[in-house]
């Protein structure tokens, strides 16, 4: 923790907690100034100290720092809230007693961001960037801790795995949501060792489609997913975010249908009937169908064209034509996905979710359909359509002949088709492409390209500045065209710092869910298709070593520092993992059954030698065995309590114990005072006598008469003894 | 609630809360008396009033009543525990303030039973019947409330459904575990209306094996199971038992492997490693196999014999021989099950579970395997072995000929066999048997027979007494053979009451899980086989109307009144329901596919006209559609919050709100005192000046210099305004 305490935080960024970008470009001066004053005042009112500096041409940078006092108070408030929602076990000590040095930096930043963004009635300034009255507050973000980031990059490049402490550090800098991503990536990476080694062995000894590998692989998938579930619990206890989803903030975009008065809490709150939302959610079904068909058609068509050109067509320009499908795919698919995503977002807004969590979950689910199609459909087509049915389908590809009739000599094409036979290596090549090439390309696209673009952009800006300087020196100083913003009149010792800040402002915001999506899709290839080519895990293992570093690099250099968010899970992606590994149990069974015969020279299955019932039977068994095993593993996992969870539980227990004992002792003291310090026997006799007095009032009550027969246990004992003695034990024995 | 308040409880049973049966038959007098004194003293020490009466020949009845004071204290203690475990939302008021009249009778009895049974360190008397030092305490139980029971029986016999209040009453009398059973039975019964009506319609219009019915049926199963899950949440909120499973009592039979010192709680507790238990649990797999084979063999054999005799054999004595298989089944199956159950129990003990809940769950699972085999295997055999494959298998039944060779003339049998053809009605008849006949038989066996036996037993006892009286009158009064226990010297006004108590002592203990099992098995027939004969739900609907009453009758007259147990679920049976309805999605698909062709004249499927792939495909689809729909329904259910859950949540919320506001206001007061009542602006300026002073100490600190440039928001605003004014908005617009 030490690295992240406020004490060290002193070190960098001149103690700036948050930077607020205020753009006034589109306002006239008076408005702009007025707005600015409002902003500054609001910030000050919640106890934040402000400094204004020049941003770029049409914006200001408002630097914000929380005074210790206010911070303590805010921390206290958030702790109380946590305690009430059962996230903390211990009642927080009063504000003044809080030692800020023990707060992690992420917590500190989160609390301050709450100060800025929470609604006023919850003790915040209620500033919502780019929304409503604050729409000219264009960004609110903390500043990167450059030295630390650089140092970590250096350190990690030397080692294979991150230690638990390093994960804690990430969490302390960037908050739990990012922390969870890295923790997940890390355990996924570590788990990949086994299948990588095993896969390599299988590939070497058994080749593709080996049953052994398939079984082990899906078993591994089960264990990994269940292990991660357990890990989430462990981490959420370790990072004190267990059950944090209970504290949910309302979406600002939420449109309540009607205001209702909650009879018990007595306050009016806007509600939106769940049933109505469900009706709207039904639209997901047509949407899913739409997405599936739209993408399906595109991919299938391109696929067909590709087959046609590469394997049927032998007219002129073939060398060039073969690229057509690739071009088509890479042009059409992203466009279509973009369209679909925008539709999905519209749908999601229409569903009008109340909390942002619910919103994200719903959106993720919709987007996943699209991802699933784009990522896996091609392989599905090859494996379950092309390979088995090619010889039947291909003839129908004639249609394309019409298009190429002009170029191709009839007989040539026909002759070619007559002895057409499928390319056995196609399936494997495709899998290789998706699990190696695509990964590398992806890495380049998400990390390197943006980095270059970004630098180019900065160059351009700098260049611009120079040019403008020139014009300015030539032009008349007092002319209205003067562009003073260009010469930043920064105090020399701040210049460097402000330059960095201005750069960070230009960066875009980081979305952790993007990176999670990437990993889940990757896991999907492993679960669904790795039996085709057992080296898949090896490739992923290598890839993820880089992934972990490059993602961190990305966050540090290509995005603004994310505002810390608390979470206790990777959210909907967890279900996705489960779903994929389940589907895997089906696909791999099918793959193995269909192709295991001809592993070495790749599949060239013919529909004739595939028995429908046998295929389905193998699927049926593999799936149900999978589910059974999963069930067992789940139970086993629940039995093995993760260490931090145990710790957390025993804390709770201690808390209860302490309280319980205190109350009991208090009670006993009370006894001592109100009664003669007699042993409880006397006590009860006393109680009895009371009863006696009461009963004397209504002597007729049969119950009282019943209970008055014997006074105290001694008398009862005597009576009992009488009865016992009355019969010699010998007979007693007989009676048994 | 009113009917169950302590006030009314006054009315009956002479205010006896619990009866403790103390058997001294096997002890010699001195021991017996000593033990008795110990017992009475222990009871008195926890503040319970005692009265001793004569039991039967070799036992005493110790009547126990809790003094108001002690009761209040016990109630308070249990409430505090609940509160700490998050079962109650509100901190309980001090003991003296408790109004016992608001406590339900069940709660009252539960608290008192805790007083008697809880270990001493938890404030109980630590009396564990039939265990350790208390092994001659043979029973601890409350007494039935006869009038109320009778009244309810009368009332319910007139109406179809029990109202929510009546369920509450059951719960108030018998505790939540019984309450949950009746609530379940009730909602199951109510839910049966629809399939009963629909099934009747289908049976009338479409006959058996109609796809429509099958689809609707499994949809209904899904909805019912999910609805009940939701209902459980609702009830547990309504009855304030939500999360009650958190408070778990340790099993006394639990054998810890080693004592470990919990580093955080600091107390030593016996533990048993989960991994070791899991290894032991692996024995379940061989056990399941054993059970399956053992029962499978028996049932299959009898089945084969039956077919042989009824359809192949035509020698002499046929009329008598046909009963052989039935006799065999009803002789062997129960015996075998009994054996297996005992094995299961041994296994379960060997698994050495820590809490009694865990123990019950584990046992239930094991027993369910046995139940599954005995209940459903016969139908499975008919549906999926006999009908499709009879013509192939039957010839092999020749083996039996050897046994009957002496009687049967060869040619006769052969001729018969040659034109053998299966009995199409068999499947339906079997289903009818299991869903109608078996139900009625079951009802008789569990309710009527025991009732008769019980009365016979009492008659016998009375007769015995008379006989002994005679011998006594003849014999010498002072002789040691004198049998005084026979003439109960009860006070006349108590005689009637004591007679009843002595009867109740002789009754056995009630196990709610037995009744739950029965219902789940019944539900299984509905889910698995009802497509064969759509009238199944009708039969169950009728049956359950009786079931609900007869079960209540059973509890009241054939069992001791159960000690109230708290629970928030029907436990493992919930999973069983889910499992059965899932399996149903497979079986019904198979049934429909195989037999839908020949509905009217019953199935006579031949393996030839059943396509393996088509069968499997239909199963595959039906199962996955089922799972998808289930998923959707589950989500939908989670969205619709049950009313009581909402209430409970808003209570929690209120509690939090109150606390939160109090702390905040406290804080603000603190501010008022410690600072001049200036608006927060001044406050922050003050803070700034403090900072200033601090910084003056280390003026060199760049951060401080950065933050000292502008004092307060006003100055920042001025600077900002300067920058804004510096550039004419026109250019600002341009820059956009």
Automatic annotation (TrEMBL), chains A, B:
<feature type="transmembrane region" description="Helical">
    <location>
        <begin position="178"/>
        <end position="198"/>
    </location>
</feature>
<feature type="domain" description="Anoctamin alpha-beta plait">
    <location>
        <begin position="15"/>
        <end position="137"/>
    </location>
</feature>
<keyword id="KW-1133">Transmembrane helix</keyword>
<keyword id="KW-0472">Membrane</keyword>
<feature type="region of interest" description="Disordered">
    <location>
        <begin position="665"/>
        <end position="704"/>
    </location>
</feature>
<dbReference type="InterPro" id="IPR007632">
    <property type="entry name" value="Anoctamin"/>
</dbReference>
<dbReference type="GO" id="GO:0016020">
    <property type="term" value="C:membrane"/>
</dbReference>
<keyword id="KW-0812">Transmembrane</keyword>
<dbReference type="Pfam" id="PF20877">
    <property type="entry name" value="Anoctamin_N"/>
</dbReference>
<feature type="domain" description="Anoctamin transmembrane">
    <location>
        <begin position="170"/>
        <end position="651"/>
    </location>
</feature>
<dbReference type="InterPro" id="IPR049456">
    <property type="entry name" value="Anoctamin_N_fung"/>
</dbReference>
<feature type="transmembrane region" description="Helical">
    <location>
        <begin position="204"/>
        <end position="228"/>
    </location>
</feature>
<protein>
    <recommendedName>
        <fullName>Anoctamin/TMEM 16</fullName>
    </recommendedName>
</protein>
<feature type="compositionally biased region" description="Basic and acidic residues">
    <location>
        <begin position="686"/>
        <end position="704"/>
    </location>
</feature>
<feature type="transmembrane region" description="Helical">
    <location>
        <begin position="321"/>
        <end position="347"/>
    </location>
</feature>
<dbReference type="GO" id="GO:0005254">
    <property type="term" value="F:chloride channel activity"/>
</dbReference>
<feature type="transmembrane region" description="Helical">
    <location>
        <begin position="287"/>
        <end position="309"/>
    </location>
</feature>
<feature type="transmembrane region" description="Helical">
    <location>
        <begin position="368"/>
        <end position="389"/>
    </location>
</feature>
<dbReference type="GO" id="GO:0032541">
    <property type="term" value="C:cortical endoplasmic reticulum"/>
</dbReference>
<dbReference type="InterPro" id="IPR049452">
    <property type="entry name" value="Anoctamin_TM"/>
</dbReference>
<feature type="transmembrane region" description="Helical">
    <location>
        <begin position="431"/>
        <end position="452"/>
    </location>
</feature>
<dbReference type="Pfam" id="PF04547">
    <property type="entry name" value="Anoctamin"/>
</dbReference>
């Amino acid at each position: 923790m030490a690295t992240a305490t406020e004490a060290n935080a002193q070190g960098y960024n001149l103690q700036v907690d948050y930077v607020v970008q205020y753009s006034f470009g589109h306002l006239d001066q008076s408005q702009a100034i007025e707005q600015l004053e409002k902003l500054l005042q609001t910030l000050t009112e919640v106890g934040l100290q402000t400094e204004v500096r020049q941003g770029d041409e049409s914006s200001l940078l408002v630097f914000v720092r929380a005074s210790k006092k206010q911070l303590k108070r805010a921390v206290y408030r958030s702790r109380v809230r946590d305690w009430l929602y059962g996230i903390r076990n211990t009642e927080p000590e009063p504000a003044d007693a809080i030692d800020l040095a023990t707060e992690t930096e992420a917590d500190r930043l989160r609390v301050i961001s709450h100060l800025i963004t929470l609604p006023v009635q919850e003790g915040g300034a209620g500033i919502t960037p780019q929304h409503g009255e604050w729409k000219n507050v264009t960004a609110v973000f903390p500043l990167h801790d450059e030295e630390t980031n650089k140092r970590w990059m250096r350190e990690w490049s030397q080692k294979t795995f991150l230690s638990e402490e390093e994960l804690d550090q990430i969490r302390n800098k960037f908050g739990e949501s990012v922390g969870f991503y890295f923790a997940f990536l890390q355990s996924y990476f570590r788990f990949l060792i086994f299948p990588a080694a095993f896969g390599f062995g299988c590939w070497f000894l058994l080749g593709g489609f080996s049953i052994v590998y398939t079984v082990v692989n899906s078993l591994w998938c089960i264990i990994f997913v269940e292990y991660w579930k357990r890990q989430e619990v462990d981490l959420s206890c370790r990072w004190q975010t267990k059950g944090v989803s209970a504290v949910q903030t309302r979406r600002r975009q939420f449109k309540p249908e009607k205001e209702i008065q909650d009879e018990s809490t007595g306050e009016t709150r806007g509600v939106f009937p769940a049933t109505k939302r469900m009706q709207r959610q039904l639209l997901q079904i047509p949407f899913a169908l739409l997405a599936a068909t739209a993408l399906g058609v595109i991919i299938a068509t391109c696929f067909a064209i590709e087959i046609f050109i590469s394997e049927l067509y032998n007219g002129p320009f073939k060398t060039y034509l073969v690229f057509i499908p690739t071009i088509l795919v890479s042009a059409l698919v992203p466009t279509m996905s973009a369209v679909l995503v925008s539709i999905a977002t519209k749908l999601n807004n229409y569903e009008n979710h109340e909390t942002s969590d619910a919103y994200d979950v719903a959106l993720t689910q919709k987007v996943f359909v699209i991802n699933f199609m784009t990522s896996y459909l091609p392989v599905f087509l090859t494996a379950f359509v092309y390979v088995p049915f090619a010889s039947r389908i291909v003839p129908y590809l004639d249609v394309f002949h019409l298009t190429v009739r002009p170029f191709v000599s009839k007989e040539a094409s026909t002759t070619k088709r007559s002895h057409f036979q499928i390319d056995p290596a196609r399936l494997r090549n495709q899998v290789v492409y998706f699990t190696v090439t695509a990964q590398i390309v992806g890495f380049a696209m998400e990390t390197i390209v943006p980095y270059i673009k970004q630098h180019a952009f900065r160059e351009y800006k700098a260049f611009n500045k120079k040019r403008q300087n020139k014009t300015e020196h030539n032009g008349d100083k007092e002319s209205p065209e003067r562009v003073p913003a260009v010469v930043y009149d920064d105090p020399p010792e701040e210049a460097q710092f402000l330059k960095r800040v201005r750069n960070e402002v230009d960066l875009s915001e980081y979305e952790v869910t993007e990176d999670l999506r990437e990993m889940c899709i990757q896991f999907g290839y492993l679960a669904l298709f790795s039996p085709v080519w057992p080296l898949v895990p090896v490739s992923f293992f290598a890839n993820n070593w880089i992934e972990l570093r490059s993602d961190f690099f990305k966050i540090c250099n290509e995005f603004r520092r994310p505002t810390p968010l608390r979470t206790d899970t990777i959210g909907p992606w967890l279900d996705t993992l489960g779903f994929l590994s389940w589907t895997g149990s089906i696909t791999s069974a099918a793959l193995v059954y269909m192709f295991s015969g001809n592993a070495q020279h790749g599949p060239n299955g013919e529909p004739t030698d595939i028995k429908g019932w046998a295929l389905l039977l193998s699927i049926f068994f593999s799936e149900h065995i999978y589910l059974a095993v999963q069930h067992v593993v789940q139970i086993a996992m629940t039995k093995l309590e993760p260490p931090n969870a145990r710790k957390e539980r025993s804390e709770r227990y201690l808390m209860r114990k302490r309280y319980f004992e205190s109350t009991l002792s208090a009670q006993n003291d009370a006894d001592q005072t109100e009664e003669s310090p007699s042993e409880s026997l006397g006590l009860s006799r006393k109680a009895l006598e009371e009863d006696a007095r009461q009963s004397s009032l209504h002597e007729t009550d049969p119950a009282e008469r019943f209970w008055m027969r014997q006074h105290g246990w001694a008398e009862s004992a005597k009576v009992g003894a009488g009865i016992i003695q009355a019969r010699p034990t010998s007979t007693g024995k007989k009676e048994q």
